[in-house]
Amino acid sequence: MAAFDHSQAKTTKPTLAGQLADRLRAEILEGRLEPGARLNLDRLREGFGVSVSSLREAVTRLVADGLIVAEEQKGYSIAPVSLANLAEITRLRIELEPVALKSAIALGTLDWETDVMAALYRLNRTDRSPGDRDSVETWESAHNAYHRALIDACAMPLLLRFIHQLHSMNDRYRRIFLKKNADQRDVAEEHTAIAEAAVARRGDEAAALLERHLERTGETLRQRLTDSLPESNL
Fold it and tell me: CA–CA separation, 139 vs 44, rounded Å?
């Protein structure tokens, strides 16, 4: 594990902890810190070259994001993956994101429309080659930016915060279980249809398309997770 580059961060503790949280988040989302694994804080501290206090603050942030689990008297571990957890994440996204999207459509300005279409263009022009870490990470960044752009104008910061937390938890499933074999759907067509309906201010249509998109993704991930589990865990 590479040492943390202090030269790229401000010397204030919150900034260092925030950058460290981002590094840990990437390790978790990409599966390098495996689901259910216990965190050895001393080893992480030495590996990143940071203080105990900065590391604990970073870990606490990821506990709040649902990516790390804190157990009394036992320390910290990476949140496990399960069919029940995936189903809950998918259900909450299906319930909440269409609400945020319809609000963004009602309130969004021309700048919002521009941001949505720019994010769509970038996503559709970004290749995702399973097994190629750099291309996967570039696509994931564009994909997250697209889904955020759709709902950024909803004017409900608490809802946005919760949805972004759900995105992080869902991203881990997608990165782990679609890492080698991409989804065979025409996801680009789905993204395009949602964005076009949104900027055309067809709220009900856009929300329905987004809901179906999330359902399909959830079903694909459920099947991949099911295939990876021993029968005793099903």
Answer: 28
Tell me the backbone φ, ψ of residue 75, rounded to 5 degrees.
90, -145
DSSP assigned state of 65:
T
Q: What CATH code would you report for 6-78?
A: 1.10.10.10
pLDDT for res 29: 86
Would you give the distance in Å from CA 230 to the centre of its chain?
Answer: 26
Tens-place pLDDT, residues 2-61: 444 444 444 444 568 888 998 999 889 888 899 999 998 888 888 888 888 889 899 999
Q: What is the pLDDT of residues 117-163, one digit of tens each?
A: 999 999 999 988 777 778 888 999 999 999 999 999 999 999 999 99
DSSP label of 38: B
Q: Say which CATH superfamily domain 83-233 falls into.
A: GntR ligand-binding domain-like (1.20.120.530)
Look at residue 22 and give its three-state secondary structure. Answer: helix
Rounded Cα distance between 233 and 219, Å, is 18
User: Which position has the higher pLDDT, 73 or 100?
Assistant: 100
